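Format notes (please read before filing issues)

Several people have asked whether sequences and structure tokens are stored in separate files. They are not. Every record keeps both together, in the order shown below: the sequence lines, then the token lines. Line labels are part of the format and must not be stripped during preprocessing.
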Amino acid sequence: MGLGSESQALTDCGALGLSMESVLGVLGFLLLASGLPLQEAKQFRDVLGHEQYPGHMRERSQLRGWSSDETEWNENLYPVWKRRDSRWENSWEGGRVQAVLTSDSPALVGSNITFVVNLVLPRCQKEDAEGNIVYEKNCRNDLGLTPDRYVYNWTAGAEDGDWEGNASQSEYLEFPDRKPFPRPHGRRRGGFVYVFHTLGQYFQKLGRCSARVSVNTANMTLGHQVMEVAVFRRHGRVYIPIAQVKDIYVITDQIPVFVTMFQKNDRNSSDETFLRDLPIVFDVLIHDPGHFLNDSAISYKWNFGDNTGLFVSNNHTLNHTYVLNGTFNLNLTVQAAVSGPCPSPTPPTTTRPTTTLPTSTRPTTTPPTSTPPTATRPTTTPPTSTPPTASPSLMPTGDNPMELSGISGENCQINRYGYFRATVTVVEGILEVNIIQVADVPVPQPDDSLMDFIVTCKGATPTEVCTITSDPTCQAAQNRVCSPVHTGQPCLLSVRRAFSGPGMYCVNFTLGDDASLALTSTLISVPGKDPASPLRMSNGALISISCLALFVTMVTGILLYKKHKAYKPIGNGPGKTVKSKSLRVLLSHAKAPFSQGNREKDPLLHSEPGMP
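Then the structure lines:
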């Protein structure tokens, strides 16, 4: 039947006086008869189902508070755009919004895992206290300074009357599955709708620029899973998509274990190369952000691979010293007894099944990968049986979880294990450094003061020595000097350093080689210029000799004066009179500094004209 036939049929129906409903019904029948397909309503898995999950996984992983993704999606209120749709470019004023999804994965099965979504707004935009998006003050973006304060003002049009049950006003206050929004408290309302999707289920919530969701993993499937999040914003009375993001998370039945290793004088702890005859501090970190193991009894079993035996402790830190050079395989097994539902009578086959906690004695065997120990020195008694063979990976090798659904509500004690393996290399290094003597260098210097340090060390021979000079508090560094070392055994160094002036200094010495760094510090007092130094002594001697010469000259002049002071007859010749007067004037000048105020006044000594 063609379109012409359809038009003729409609004309005939109108002539017969049929109602509009009848006409539409006839038209629908004609469309069906013509074979044109009708568009089916979208479901959540059509919008968010980028990861497909089989039916048995959907039945097994029933998450509390989540719904099946086979629910119908309200596309009229929440339009669906394809990934390359051009409408994405105009979904937000001023640019694109980026969504960042994080989680505290890996999560031990039975614990809670938390997902957090943060929205990264375009430049110069932020969220205010009421949840509106505003422009930052004095911030210039690509569009320049804008006089408008708001990017999106959602609280201005959101009144309490919208929540009073008026269908015309509240029909848009719904989630994509047509469930109504929760009533907000006050005016602090979120303008975003977040839809989380994983394991064939979804969870939806209102939020602001950040949203957080916590999920219990008791019924989750072990292994790597994908969490997808779609974010929508209010746009009038519809919600348009602004961002999509997904991230991988891990559910495991093994305790996530990390070990940090620290050793004094170790130059680089990240290369797993350590020094002989110095203790290594091992610190075990259990990744348990949900505090699932807070009430569990945890034991730590160590095998250091150097034939020292198995060490068992309830403390997460332990010190161990390697006394030989070489390469050693370190093995750690962490065991925790947790409360959980008892397994079903016929659990499925798993790669490494979890077992029920029985009562047993302390195991005496070591992990199969380590060297058989010659002695066993446990510090505590483990409360459970020997764990299965440790695997080199923290994650399970299979995806078959322990069945937790459809079992009795009784609680059992379940053993959970975590493993850590490492290969460490032990070499000889510098173990200790000491300053045994500090002396001032007796060589004159115009500016700096020199100090000699005698330094000894133990262990390997250093290849360089560095000094850092600081203030007396050892906080503010002033200079740093490094120099190569040429020394034999035993380690004895003479290091000379210059200081800018007298005072108190903190001096840090660091001796190093390829694998180690040993350091020590001392507080010294640098003296000032010694007054008895050779230079000052020579200058003093010259001054003393000059003063002595001047004194001898003056004494000689006085003696000469006294010698000529004796009375002699005055001659009648004019030549003698002039000579005598000249001599008296010379002696008077020489005597003046020593006889001020006590000058002899003898009229016989004056040679005045006209005297007899």
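For reference, the curators noted about this record: The mean pLDDT is 75. The chain has five domains: 3-34, 44-252, 257-427, 432-526, 547-594.
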